[in-house]
Sequence to fold (328 residues):
Amino acid sequence: MSLHAVRALKHVPSSSEDQFRTEVFAGLSARPRALSPRWFYDRRGSELFEAITALPEYYLTRAEYTILLRHAAEIARITGIGRALIELGSGSSVKTPLLLNALAPSAYVPIDISGDFLHQSAAALAKRFPALSIHPVIADFMNPFTLPAAVRSLPRVGYFAGSTIGNMTVPVAVEFLRATARTLGEGAFLLIGIDRIKDARRLVAAYDDAQGVTARFNLNLIHRINRDLQGTIPVGAFRHAALWNDYEARIEMHLEAVHDIEFRVAGESFSIAERETIHTESSLKYGPREARTLLRAGGWSPIAEWTDPEGLFALLLASSPSSSAWPQ
Ligand code: AVI
Fold:
């Protein structure tokens, strides 16, 4: 990708700050209080997430990497080479190169809401793959978006890594999968990483690591509110909490007040009592059958799947239906 293309990246629309304010007001006023995890990913949050992926307790990224290392060639045999690779998320410096090498895409389209991070990772990949045509798109892939003109006539394979689908509720995940099927079009493939249900202690450790990186990631949301919405929230008044909700099959992350707090955000007053929490993220985990059912509900046909040797994480390959079987 040329520097020109990097500079041509659009800025996140200013309305996103209005949306942040609206969602923070609504989330802090709701009972239980909750904020969307998508607000984690400012520049610092994206850096902290990258650090999380290297933690000993956070097995997800390593497991998915191992699967790609072992099976990328097999994936390419099924999809064929030379498709446009559309990555939903800005791409990881370790996993994406494995796919780029195996799939030999005719174009690579990373899509991410964080312009800074997208810019950085696209530039790093451009250095490593100078012949690759890269078309970064700043967009929230939860909303409809248009693929760059350069890839519109190419067959496509989508990649949604890291079990990010786990951060969506089931109805939202189904809606996302259906929207992705429409964007990628007939004859497309989707390669998707989905974390599996497993021992609760292992799951909780992955979201409450000994070095406290996940805690900093969670607490960064308060720094972001203070910075972007003129907040006066005392960061030290919150602690990071991660728990396994077995009934909902999800890890929940919360920010828990360690004492009663009063603060202001963009001129509005809020108070939170000691031990009350703000629910900041759910990370749903799926068994093998539930994962396939989810894909089918989203309009995709699962055709192959692979796991790491410990069976911690799964990578599923699905195909989009022909027009006659198009999901309604
Ligand atoms: C991005 N997503 C898949 C991560 C997860 O595992 O749910 C976000 C994360 N939250 C805490 N650690 C990692």
